[in-house]
Design goal:
Keywords: Heme, Iron, Membrane, Metal-binding, Transmembrane, Transmembrane helix. The protein is an all-alpha fold. The chain has two domains: 1-39; 43-138, Cytochrome Bc1 Complex, Chain D, domain 2 (Orthogonal Bundle). It is 52% helix and 3% strand. It contains five helices and two strands. The chain has helices at residues 7-40, 48-59, 82-85, 92-104, 123-137, and strands spanning 67-68, 71-72. Strands 1-2 form a two-stranded antiparallel ribbon. A hairpin with a 2-residue loop joins strand 1 and strand 2 (71-72). Helix 2 (48-59) packs across helix 5 (123-137) and helix 4 (92-104) packs across helix 5. It is elongated. The structure holds heme C. Heme C binds next to helix 3 and helix 4.
Length: 150
């Protein structure tokens, strides 16, 4: 098997393989970018209120305890689907009131349960936050999270 692989053949395989997979990588990156902008982002529903809600979400570091679509901390429930879990798809008004009421009612201090702190938010901020959670819920996550509570 002495003639198996010459030096130049090995070099060609190395450079050819590197180039090939770099092109595949670049194509997949471009496709992901295109897909995010044109298919998976519901831009029409991305209102100023949703943007304000995202800002409130970031300002108060909700992600330090919660996860959103699997990203974040696993101390508190997943909130990417909380809108559906509160019945927002069937009855948006009740879900809006339920979510706002929940956030306002903290801390519950139920023994043996993890505590969510009181977070001071204006009515406008709360409304925006709920719209942000509803918008996030509309993202097609292709079945994530596998369990409804995250
Ligand atoms: C210090 C940790 C912490 C922070 C920060 C926090 N939460 Fe929570 N949150 C919790 C915990 C713990 C629970 C569950 C409490 C329970 O079940 O009694 C919870 C529950 C919730 C629920 C109800 C979830 C459900 O499935 O019923 C919502 C909605 C919520 N949080 C929204 C928020 C928002 C919005 C923010 C940011 C403004 C936030 N939380 C910040 C700890 C936190």
């Amino acid at each position: 098997m002495a003639e198996a692989l010459t030096r130049s053949a090995a070099r060609n395989i190395f450079f050819g393989g590197s180039l090939f997979f770099f092109i595949v990588f670049a194509a997949l990156t471009a496709h992901t970018h295109w897909y995010m902008l044109n298919v998976s982002t519901d831009e029409e529903a991305l209102t100023e209120q949703v943007k304000l809600g995202k800002h409130v979400w970031e300002q108060h570091s909700c992600i330090n305890c919660h996860s959103l679509l699997g990203e974040g901390a696993y101390f508190a429930p997943e909130l990417g689907n909380v809108w559906t879990r509160y019945g927002g798809r069937e009855n948006p008004d009740a879900a809006r009131a339920g979510l706002k009421g929940w956030i306002r009612a903290q801390p519950l201090n139920v023994p043996g349960r993890r505590v969510m702190p009181k977070i001071d938010l204006t009515d406008e901020e709360l409304d925006a936050l709920v719209e942000f959670l509803a918008w996030t819920d509309s993202i097609d996550t292709q079945g994530w999270p596998p369990h409804p509570a995250g």
